[in-house]
Amino acid sequence: MVSTQPVAIQAHGSQYLPQLSSSGINLSPNLLLLPMSARVNHHDFLEIGGCDVKTLVEQFDSPLYILDEQTLRVACRQYQEACQKYYKGEFQILYASKAWNCLAICAIVASEGLGIDVVSGGEIYTALQAGVSPSKIYFHGNNKSRAELNLAIESNCPIVVDNWLELRTLAELATNNPGIRIMLRLTPGIECHTHEYIRTGNLDSKFGFDINDLDQVFAFISQQPGLNCFGLHAHIGSQIFERQPHRDLARIMVQWLRESLKHGLNITELNVGGGLGVKYVESDDPPNIEEWIKAICEVVQNACTSENLPLPKLLCEPGRSLVATAGVTAYTVGATKTIPGIRTYLAIDGGMSDNPRPITYQSVYRAVIANKMSAPLSQTVTVAGKHCESGDILIKDAQLPRTEPGDILVVMGTGAYNYSMSSNYNRLPRPAAVLVMNGEANLILQRETYQDLVRLDCLPERLK
Ligand SMILES: Cc1ncc(COP(=O)(O)O)c(C=O)c1O
Q1: Which of 44, 80, 130, 388 could pair covalently with 107 via S-S, beta carbons 3.0-4.6 A apart?
Q2: Residue 140 in contact with ligand 1 by CB distance below 6 A
Q3: Which of 76, 227, 238 lies closest to 158, judged by CA?
């Protein structure tokens, strides 16, 4: 029988709005597509943090990174609360600031009690300038320069030692600076891809000490009175949707802890790295923050009980799952090109310079038209960036309503590894970023200008 019911036309934007659970709370930010504060206002426009996105673009220009403070803070709190709930020992959450390192974000996460994972002198400097306590700035990296090591030592930041050269350099520096606080990064032999993982005896990774060197490394450190080795670290990958790899990792790390005792080391901290995935598209299905933390805490506690070891201080260092969903990027729609029977390209005013993930990793994203949130889906288009690169495609086959030049296209989930991986390719100035909360918008990163682009250029006299 043919239904006589009118067919409901789904508003294209509302499908991505956060749906409150029956209790109205406990949305894990990593499971959302739009930030937690996203609403559609009475003009049918998208609002984030109580700010109309179209108005933000008018005020701060386009493209524009928009960061929702509520989503970021809720994610920090969920990590903290889950550790409080499931871990009986001390813990410390670190924000892996490679996801997006800037003063405002460092200051926000620090105000929530998080420390910061940094991977360069520049990231150390930014975290210090943001007022983060140096003892909570953990310095990673597989090829730290002497200048970077000295900056970390002078600032009293713990150093996560990656390899023999670095270990020997630190042992030498410790002769004049005894008490340098270090952790060791080890390669656990767990290799993660997004939807699967494998455990291998000998993992091909540029990071960390080979696990077969474990005894030698511990023995070397036990002979270095100037080095205070207090922790072990491992990171197995990013955008991981399963809990088992981190369970395996936690179990292996407790075994390392037991091994370290044989060498008389006093290891009190275990850092299991980051890696919890986020939902970029509807089919992505990561565990929520609480489930992920619970899985790790259970294994560490059970393994320590069965090994009769005291509970270490537990650290983890999420990046993406703290900040990805808090961020969106607003672009202005420009030209369209339709190739009959093939595809329609919809060009926007940014692209691979502000979001290099699609061209680098074939990452997928969803988008909405911020000034037409209730309009029905009516076209499949390929959202193309403005760079001189055929591969500069932000979204293939995006489902969108009918668009016109001047519409505001918002790409969701761009808070992690977008600004931090941005470039000036084709000499595009980097976009501005605004922090939104309760109807207030604060600039956190200024838009670059053409003057900024030539600021570090030098024109030799003979070329003038
Ligand atoms: C050492 C280390 N820790 C933490 C992270 C953060 O990972 P994610 O953003 O997936 O949480 C990374 C990212 O690659 C990393 O290399």
Answers
A1: 130
A2: yes
A3: 227
